[in-house]
Amino acid sequence: MEKMKKLPDAEFEIMKVVWENEPPITTAMIMAEIGDKRKWKAPTVLTLMRRLVERGFLRTEKKGKERTYYPLISKEDYLQLETEQFMKKYHKNSFLSFVNTLYNTEPPTEEELDELLKWAKERRE
Q1: Spatial distance between the Cα atoms of 50 and 37, rounded to a whole number of angstroms
Q2: Residue by residue, what is the 3-state secondary structure of 34-66?
Q3: What share of the chain is helix, strand, coil (3-state, %, to 5)?
Q4: DSSP-assigned beta bridge partners for residue 66
Q5: Model pTM?
Q6: Using one digit for the tens of pLDDT, what is the confidence trace for 103-120?
């Protein structure tokens, strides 16, 4: 796959459905889970699925009249890429800058600080 790019919101919503279900995925599954909520018509979902195939996020197979789709990238890999790009762009890869931004308006609770310290200690081991 070429360099992966950030997904537009609509395509990311579809990928969330793909990641939450056991492949193969069908357009009918997408419509059932989010199509009605978003008031998408079937051609809209088909167009978004085609874009995801073209971008290398999904592969497709034709089974009879129905197309089935399979993820080519895991949710974890995509979120890691997104997080790395976000940290680099907005925080110059500084974890401290990120945490300061998170707690700029409301300080963390003692429990949150304890959890953060525990997490940090575990990561160092």
Answers
A1: 20
A2: HHHHHCCCHHHHHHHHHHHHHCCCEEEEEECCE
A3: 60, 10, 25
A4: 63
A5: 0.79
A6: 777 888 899 889 988 998
Angle, CA 60 vertex, CA 57 and CA 66 arms, to 5°: 135
Helix (H) / strand (E) containing 69? strand 66-71
3-state secondary structure of 59: strand
Provide the Cα torsion 82, 85, 90, 96; round to 10°. Answer: 80
- Look up residue 15 and give its two tokens: 């990928």
Q: Which two tokens stand for residue 11?
A: 């395509």
* Rounded Cα gap, residues 35 and 42, in angstroms: 8
Amino acid occupying residue 109: T
Alpha-carbon gap, residue 89 to 62, rounded angstroms: 40
Structure tokens at 21: 């279900």
- Pick from 32, 70, 67, 64: nearest CA to 46: 67
Q: Taking the alpha carbons of 43, 44, 45, 49 in that order, is the dihedral positive or negative?
A: positive
